[in-house]
Amino acid sequence: QLQLVESGGGLVQSGGSLRLSCAASGFTSRSYSIGWFRQAPGKEREGVSCIRSSDGRTHYEDSVKGRFTISRDNAKNTVYLEMNSLKPEDTAVYYCAAGLGYVCDTTMGPKSGYITWGQGTQVTVSS
Fold first, then answer.
1. What is the pLDDT of residues 47-77, one digit of tens each?
2. Most exposed of 6, 29, 69, 92 (fewest Cβ within 10 Å)?
């Protein structure tokens, strides 16, 4: 059974850093593209970043480009999201998701292309 578990969220001051982890079980994380999404209260879930399964290509949404870094540790079957220079507008529940081959190219791809989702981890950035 494919399963993803996020961890690493918390409360941090503006300008601070956090590293989120997405641990995969039931499959090898490198077999699927992994995307990070976030959802703030009252807003739609939006894409943040993804890493492609075939070649490790990464994509970042403009709102996080230059501040967030996605990476993959195949030995640990885990994908990370390093978040630096955090802003209050980064406050949200962050989800990771495993996607089919056509996602994570020049864009995140449609959410419908991500077939397994984690339960989410809360990130709160205080001003």
1. 999 999 888 999 999 999 999 999 999 899 9
2. 69
Tokens 């601070």, residue? 16
CB 86 within 8 A of CB 125: yes
Residue 8, pLDDT > 90, answer: yes
Show the 3-state SS of 28-83: CHHHCEEEEEEECCCCCCEEEEEECCCCCCEEECCCCCCCEEEEEEHHHCEEEEEE
- Other Cβ atoms less than 10 A from the Cβ of 51: the count is 24
Which uninterrupted H or E stretch holds 94? strand 92-99
Q: How many CB atoms sit inside 10 A of residue 98's CB?
A: 26
List Cβ neighbours of 90 (8 Å cut-off, separation of 6 or more): 38, 64, 83, 123, 125
